[in-house]
Amino acid sequence: MELVSAAKMRKAQLAAQASRPYATLSAELLQNIAARTGQINHPLMRQVVNGKPSDRFRALAIVITSDKGLAGSLNTNIINKTIELVKIVRNEFRVFKSGNDELDRVHTAVGVTEFITIGKKATEAIRRFKDAKIIATFPGKDKVITSADSKPIAEIAMKEFAAAVYEKVFVIYPQFISTLVQKPNILQLLPFESAERRGVRDEGREFLFEPSPGEVLENLITRAVEFSIYQTLAEAAASEHSARMVAMRNANEAAGELIDDLSLSYNQARQGGITRELSEISAAKLAMEG
Amino acid sequence: MIKFKIATPERVLFDAEVESLTLPTQMGEITILPNHIPLIANLDHGEIRCQVANKREFFAVSGGVIEVRKNHEVVVLADTAEFGHEIDLKRAEEARDRAKLLMLEKAGEPEAFQEAAASFGRNLARIKVAHKHRTHKHPHVES
Questions:
Q1: Which UniProt keywords apply (chain B) (predicted)?
Q2: Residue of B14, B67, B70 to mutate when probing chain A, most A C-beta within 10 A
Q3: What are the start-end ranges of the E strands in A72-133?
């Protein structure tokens, strides 16, 4: 199983790395648009505030785990991170509404988190949470990720966010750092925040948008959100196979040690038996001769 | 020369210098030559053609974004992109026929119809690119 995971791991790691140029290019493009149009203004980038005082602060968490276990602490870490997020959201409510003293007093409700789960492990664990509401469940993605995998997930998230059902959408996934290290990470998917704006490039005013800046931005942001999901899925797949390979290697080594220990005890016991029998025989012989 | 790059989430398909290239945008087909003014446009599904030293390259793409930068750089961020030789003609034709049937079935549902129509258009473009690749490789077959 270590060898199987090693082969899958190599593929998944390559796939996770292959998406990086696209990530860089699309971040650059968003920055360029921001530099040229002054400010990016798009529904998916704004925080939608529910006006009614009775409304709770609601967040959506997309939790990515694997379908299968035997991957060390990978899935447990993700679930722990999810619990952490649920706590943050519960407190965020106060921070979020603190602009208005009167509203603060009226509010006693706490922030709630609802879930989209990807992978059996997430579904099983989150079902056990108290009052957890899972709005959608997807099977774990451990093969090569395609945009057909990420699109439906992104579409649900964008639709619900645009309808102001949720004020924030997060993705919790194992970030792939190296074969030995995978870090559970929380990514804020919506409102969409483009990567930090570095030095603004001035390319002059002469600039064309086809069909129009608004439509191009719409197109680009939808894709950027879909791509964020794609990338987290790819990283999760790379993490899963890496974690499983390491877990299997550890299991192999532990089993090897156990076998060594047991062989030693067995040989000692066997040799002990032989020695005892030999001494009994020689003792009997001596007695008969004597 | 133009520095031309096609990237999809899965890979960087093409990264080289070309003399000119023709792209399908939502507003129609455009051709980019060196010294084109900066442009950002929505990419439609269809074929991308580019000319490199008397040789032509064809790609089938399905939607995305095009950015023409000031320093003769063109970047295409595509959802999917394929070389002509990568396309399985038989499967593309099957997909096109499936999409056609689906379009007839879903004529009453705008959303499903649109999806089927998009799939039909995408596969039509793929078939076109695959055919071009063939005739280009074996120019005497047709004559």
A1: ATP synthesis, Cell membrane, CF(1), Hydrogen ion transport, Ion transport, Membrane, Transport
A2: B67
A3: 112-118
